[in-house]
Amino acid sequence: MREELEPCPFCGTTASHGVxxxxxxxxxDFGGHFIQCDNPNxxxxxGLRFACGDDPKPHLAAAWNTRAxxxxxxxxxxxxxxxxxxxxxRAEQWRLRRERESERDINAAVIGELKAENEPAFPRPGFxxxxxxxxxxxxxxxxxxQAIGAIIAATSAGQHxxxxxxxxxxxxQDKMAADAYRxxxxxxxxxxxxxxx
Length: 197
Prior knowledge:
By secondary structure, this protein is mostly helical. It is 50% helix and 5% strand. It has helices spanning 56-65, 70-117, 139-156, 172-193, and strands at residues 15-19, 33-37.
């Protein structure tokens, strides 16, 4: 009579009896009976049992069909789920840490580029602030601040037309501010190329 086999306790797939036939008698496992999961990716298997005057299949089936108490299985599954959750949480923490480090590197690079391109108007030699928050206005802003006073005076006297030559419907104060920064940019360019020296 064929012994009914419980599904594989690891993956739930059906299981089957097997006998080692490879290698002939030169193989010490030759003739050994076993039970293994039918899922080729599972590898669930019982150890070998040899026929010693009796049929090993019932003994193998009884061992295969033995299951841990439900409470133990539930506890093991719960522990496995908790371990998986903790590993996922740790992986997420590492991901966030790498993102923060990457953001710091990017911010430091951007600040470095901005400080190089738009140096402070009144630098303090020997003082290096990585955050770039203590150097006050930039040189470009200072140039624009100097230009805006002259632009306002010239506009009031009818000697300057903010946004002249451009199709621009913005308020006049926006046009004057834009003109001030155009002058500031020209001063920055002249300063870099020594055209003004």
